[in-house]
Design a protein that fits this description.
The chain is of the alpha/beta class. The chain has helices at 12-23, 37-47, 63-73, 88-97, 109-120, 128-141, 157-167, 172-179, 183-197, 202-211; strands at residues 3-8, 28-34, 51-54, 78-83, 101-104, 125-126. Strand 4 (78-83), helix 4 and strand 5 (101-104) form a beta-alpha-beta unit. The protein starts with a strand and ends in a 12-residue tail after the last helix.
């Protein structure tokens, strides 16, 4: 399945470089490019892309406001932020505006492809560093339930182990390596976890893990 993508970035050299890179990646077709948020919103209305790769700091209409307008007017189009900045003042407003993915501009082509595919499948397309930052925020604002003797909602011990590694920010490949199992087996476990826990993506799974005491916030001592 080919993803139809619009690139929004105010710097012409960066924008053209991203378009050129995407043209070399499998499963992605660039259908438009915008120099600011206003133009990005207009192009989405005209071209109905699957995904917008959105810079944040742009003139006239910044990436956060453009994301909000796109998600309100064109809910079938997903937004993946592609920016230089990963600080809280950039990250959380973008996610609240409706972005389903967040990458920094040092992301490789394979990471961009993965994020685009993830958001098209209804998952979150987050860089590992961003996922860990969300984990830290969740742990800072939500006190964990004491650890349980048995996993909740019918999770098996192995599924609980996989979930704890997801919550720590590990990718499927990394989880497979740590547990000495195949990547396909990890994916099966994660699908089972999502179904039993009633969550839609990895971000919700992280919150679920903390709420049910399957993992403790960093720096918490087990007594």
């Amino acid at each position: 399945m080919t993803a139809r993508v619009i690139v929004a970035d105010d710097q012409a050299v960066v924008r053209e470089g991203i378009v050129m890179l995407l043209g070399l990646l499998p499963g992605i077709e660039v259908v438009g490019a915008a120099k600011d948020g206003e133009e990005a919103v207009a192009l989405v209305g005209e071209l109905a892309p699957d995904v917008v790769l959105m810079d944040l700091r742009m003139p006239r209409c910044d990436g956060v406001e453009a994301t909000r307008r796109i998600r309100e007017r064109h809910p079938a189009t997903q937004v993946v932020v592609l920016t230089t900045y990963a600080d809280d003042d950039s990250l959380f407003p973008a996610l609240r505006a409706g972005a389903r993915g967040y990458l920094t501009k040092d992301a490789g082509g394979d990471e961009i492809v993965r994020a685009v595919r993830d958001v098209m499948a209804g998952d979150a397309g987050l860089a590992p560093t961003v996922q860990r930052r969300l984990l830290e925020r969740v742990s800072a604002v939500a006190a964990p339930v004491p650890a349980r003797e048995s996993p909740p909602d019918g999770l098996t011990a192995r599924e609980a182990e996989v979930l704890s590694l997801v919550a720590e920010g590990f990718s499927n490949k990394e989880i497979a390596g740590r547990l000495h199992i195949g990547a396909a087996t990890v994916k099966t476990h994660i699908n089972n976890i999502f179904a039993k826990a009633g969550v839609r993506d990895r971000a919700q799974a992280v919150r679920y893990a903390y709420q049910h005491g399957l993992i403790r916030p960093p720096g918490t001592n087990i007594t």
